[in-house]
Design goal:
Helix content is 0%, strand content 46%. The protein is an all-beta fold. Strands 4-5-12-7-10 form a 5-stranded antiparallel beta sheet, with no helix packed on it. It has a 3-stranded antiparallel beta sheet with strand order 1-2-3, with no helix packed on it.
Length: 164
Amino acid sequence: MKVLIKASLAASLVGVAALFPFALPVIAETDGGFIRLAPDQVPFKSPLGAGPSQSIIYGDPSKPGIYVVRNRFPPGAHSKPHFHSQDRHATVIKGVWYTGIGPRLDFASAVPLKEGSYMLHPANGVHWDGAGEEEVVVQIVGIGPVTTTPVDAGDTPDNWPKPK
């Protein structure tokens, strides 16, 4: 049976958008407490209507308990340096995700992670990430409540690939 599951988005993608809370409806197949969600049912939302977007798959990052979110980066989109208040476990679902650590965003030092790759973002660990020439989808699992804090990157080279 289909049910409407409502979740609040209080997490953020840092970079194109700062914190962006909004309600997010998800249509999913449920049966006896199990939830099945096909890729085309994942309702990504971007606060600006373009750029990086997010979907809450399970839970609520702003409340106590486990949560699962998916972040989607269009080609050339990336976050600015930031950190989270809790550990976050990220798995690349689609594309090649370029990742870096520290306050200096520099694509030349990014480590590419292909589909199926995993990365731990430890609590308070400054990092940045995003897409190169193709769209990227990353699934993140964590324990809420979690906050995201931007970091002043100072003088950062403008060498991230532009979308084609």
